[in-house]
Amino acid sequence: MLKMLKNSLEKNRVAHAYLFEGARGTGKKDFAFLLTKALLCLAPIENVPCETCINCKRVNHGNHPDVHLVEPDGLSIKKGQIKALQEEFSKTGVESKKKFYLVTHADRMTTNAANSLLKFLEEPNSQTVAILMTEQIQQILPTIISRCQILSFQPLSSEKMLEKLVELGVKKEQAPLLASMTNNINEAFALNGDDWFAQAQKIVVKLYEVLRRGSLEALVFLQEEWFGHFKEKEQIDRGLDLLLLIFKDLLYIQVGKSDQVVFVNERQRLEHFAFTCSPNSLSRQLSAILEAKRKLQSNMNPQLLMEQLVLNLQEGSSFV
């Protein structure tokens, strides 16, 4: 992929629109800015940005007048945002011949916004470069996809991710959990030193243990410990991811794949717990957590969501 873009730069055949698609943490946004800097850099070295000229620095600081970043306003990208972008691009470049617009989470455009962007893409200016980014390419209008050059971003393999984290100084027993939380090395390394995340792991493990004692005790635990720590939507989502990983670990142990357990420090206790619940029960509980994550994204009240999840995890479970 990098080689293909370098060839495009060398031959001056940069597309007017790109669609970067791939899972969260695969470097789409970083690469979008790298391409932008490569095209604006005053002293590129073999088409790689120098990172020291005024253009590279201004792109890095988000204040280059010819580079425009569009991100969701709340839950979506609205028509007004695309309209403002179109008005801005009707003007000539302030400092360079080219103008760039980068759209993150392009799948979150409203229908009107997507249609407005489509009109923009249908009448490309030779000096305009668009870079759309998405984790959900199936949510993008086919007509928009057809007008973009698609580049797919793949996450590092688990082995490579673990290897790089250990090279950075992450403890071997912590690396599998971090690698399961994100595909982004920098994000994983940041989580490793995050006191909030360290405490989050302890609370989630404790929630699982409390769940085994009954839904009433678990509901009390939510009030006393969970809600005080998991306050923001993103934090709750992290907590649900951690809870999901615990149940996955239990399933791995049951099917004889203990080497894939990511809560390494809890392996001994999890091995004891794993054989006190049925595979069918674990499957239902995993589904309940995934459904809770979906509801969280649709803006369900977080407190109600967690209380409902606790009850769902208890319903039909076979804790003994």
**Count of discrete alpha- or pi-helical segments spanning 4 or more residues:** 15
Strand content: 5-15%
**Roughly how much helix do the residues carry, as a percent range?**
40-55%
- Tally of discrete structural domains: 2
Q: What sequence of helices (H) and strands (E) makes up the elements?
A: HEHHEHEHEHEHHHHHHHHH
Reported by name, the CATH topology of the largest domain is Rossmann fold
Alpha carbon gyration radius: 23 Å
- Structural class call reads alpha/beta
Question: What can you tell me about this protein's structure?
Answer:
Helix 2 (28-40) runs antiparallel to helix 3 (54-60), helix 11 runs antiparallel to helix 15 and helix 14 packs antiparallel against helix 15. This protein is elongated. A five-stranded parallel sheet has the order 2-3-4-1-5, sandwiched between helices. Strand 3 (99-103), helix 5 (111-122) and strand 4 (128-134) form a beta-alpha-beta unit. The mean pLDDT is 90. By secondary structure, it is an alpha/beta fold. The chain has 15 helices and five strands. It has two domains: 2-153, 3-Layer(aba) Sandwich (Rossmann fold); 194-314, Zinc Finger, Delta Prime, domain 3 (Up-down Bundle), CATH 1.20.272. It has helices spanning 2-10, 28-40, 54-60, 79-89, 111-122, 142-145, 158-167, 175-181, 185-192, 195-211, 215-229, 233-254, 267-274, 279-297, 302-314, and strands spanning 17-22, 67-70, 99-103, 128-134, 149-153.
